Amino acid sequence: MTTTVIALGGNALLRRGDPMDPAIQDRNVAEAAAAIIAAVPDGERVVVTHGNGPQVGLLALADAGRPGGIPFPLDVLDAESEGMIGYLLARHLHRIGGRQVATLLTQVVVDVDDEAFSQPTKPIGRTYARDEIQQLADRHGWRIAPEGDPEGASWRRVVASPAPRSVVEVDAVRALLDAGMIVVCAGGGGVPVAVEGDRLVGVEAVVDKDATSALLAEQLGAERLLLLTDVEAVVSGWGTPEAQPIGETTAAELESEVFVAGSMGPKVHAACSFVERTGASAAIGSLDQLALVVDGRAGTRITR
Q: What dihedral angle (degrees, nearest 10) is formed by the CA atoms of 44, 27, 81, 234?
């Protein structure tokens, strides 16, 4: 029986330009759930992961503004966003598909010596004008970076994004799949934790959900990894007159291209790593074209 891991980008659930409105996010999640149910055959083993960049940034900003309170660390906010989005996905997947759905709070082990802690690249929260975000950065001690074009008008907060080393609850995910459930897990890349002796401790970071999705897909022996976002395909020469969408390609060919670290880069690296390590296939495409991506008629399709 085929196992498919579907990773929904945070921007696919709260789209660029959307206000931080719960009703709008709920509508987008419902549309995502409908697309998944329509595209994946009955009986297929399905794991749904999701991003949390816009959501965890909103939670962090709201938490930092609490009068007289000590802000919660990012791992706790990661868990909060994982539960919030996972609940919405599970509710709509069950309503539309009629299958049992389990949402699993997922911890991911990272290395505290990962160089990502000294070079934050993971964007979270909404975009701001440079002057506005600089004021917030000065007030809260944020690291910030431009969104896409270094000279562009849009800026976001960036945080450490260490590489995932292992998924703590992978056996639980496998058991739920064996029971015939759709599993929603590894939200926002999972809650980052480090091993200290015989216990796990939270880490101040946000793990890239595509990297975690690729690792989870490998550990589950999945035949297919789908990384969905709000663009139709990976583009070669993005931002230049020679820009072209990439259709069918190999992992080696795609890895030879250069992509923005805070945007398409992590997706490309995660997809190629999964394909190279397993020999299975991966695709990067638009949530709105999920059925076509599953059929291989849209998106960027990557093989070894």
A: 60
